[in-house]
Amino acid sequence: MLPGVPDYLSVGTHQARQNNWTEELRFTSNDDEKSRWSWVAGLYYQHNISADKQQFAEPFDEVANYLSEYYGYGPGNSLSYFGEAPVDGKFSYIDNFTVRETDKAAYGNVSYEILDGLKAGRGLARGPERLRLHRLPGRALRHGRRRRPIAARRRRRRSHRASTSPTSSPPTR
Description:
Layout: E1 11-28, E2 37-57, H1 60-70, H2 78-82, E3 91-115, E4 118-126, E5 129-135, H3 150-164
Antiparallel strand pairs: 1-2, 2-3, 3-4, 3-5
């Protein structure tokens, strides 16, 4: 229970989806006992999609009013106290994004058996990686970042301007 807001209830939803697809085509040498050479070559492809959606509805106007009055700023709401109003009038936090990742590669390796049990080899892998983040519009209140209410910031700016003028006395707190 939150003091001053007895019916405080935070309702949240979180949905996560993931879709992955991976494929590899590999070619290898037919290692016979007579040959000292062996090789591997191939192609690789991967495509992943991850989506995440979160939203929380809270009575932030009531909470902001309680905090505003508690700290002596008078009545307030989430806009005056936190600097932002709830999204669509009720959501304190909305996050909605999709990540798409695509990897493609071609690779190869050749090795030569110098002595029995001792091999030297050379390999190469080459391929682009593509990562895209798509965030849908939404706003969030700045949780975790302590901010003075807007009214208090304005009062402080006015008192600072007054204290920097040559004829005024220092502000009292």
